[in-house]
Amino acid sequence: MTAPSLQPTRPHHPALAAFVRFVICGGGVGVASSGVLVLLHDRMPLALANALVTVVSTLIATELHSRVSFRSGRSGWAVHLQSGLTVAVSYAFTTGALLCLYAIRSEPSTLVQQSVYLSASALAGAGRFALLRVVVFGERKAAGTRGASLGKASVAMAA
């Protein structure tokens, strides 16, 4: 007699699994970055502090996303540069959100500041996920291959 095998109740979705890993890795780095931003805010201008935190956290997060989130195996400075371009938009977005906050409230509480920063970071992160998954860490076609090859999933979907 063989033991019954457990069948998953839902099909496995690689994009959803990658997104969960992306959120855990990026969120952890983001929360740590938020704390560092609070520490640096009184020591230097906000835009400079955010730039410094963004650069360091991007290097760390790119390595985590390559190895853990997308499990791509791609690495090197080209990947960091591509990821860095997505972060440039995130930097502008988070800095803009904080500058808007300071235009509305000259001295917001740390809680309000962090809420704005983390909310802007989450929105920018969703956009980054899409770009990183498709452009930076997406599957590359081998040079010289033409057309799509049919795998089991393609054939099953067509049937």
Pattern of helices and strands: HHHHH
Based on helices, strands and strand pairing, what is the structural class?
mainly alpha
Mean pLDDT: 81
Residues in helix, %: over 70%
Low-confidence stretches: 144-150, 153-159
Strand content: under 5%
How many DSSP H or I helices?
Answer: 5
Could you describe the largest sheet, including whether it forms a barrel?
Answer: none
- What distance separates the N and C termini? 34 Å
| Backbone shape | elongated
- Alpha carbon gyration radius: 20 Å
The counted number of beta strands is 0
Q: Explain this structure to me?
A:
With 159 residues, this protein is an all-alpha fold. Helix content is 72%, strand content 0%. The protein is built from five helices and no strands. It has helices at 14-41, 46-69, 77-104, 110-136, 152-158. Helix 1 runs antiparallel to helix 2 and helix 2 (46-69) packs across helix 3 (77-104). The chain is elongated and about 65 Å long. Mean pLDDT is 81; it is low at 144-150 and 153-159.
Salient structural properties:
single chain, 159 residues, mainly alpha, disordered C terminus
What's the structural blueprint in terms of helices and strands?
Elements: H1 14-41, H2 46-69, H3 77-104, H4 110-136, H5 152-158
Helix pairs in contact: 1-2, 1-4, 2-3, 3-4
Entry summary:
By secondary structure, this protein is mainly α.
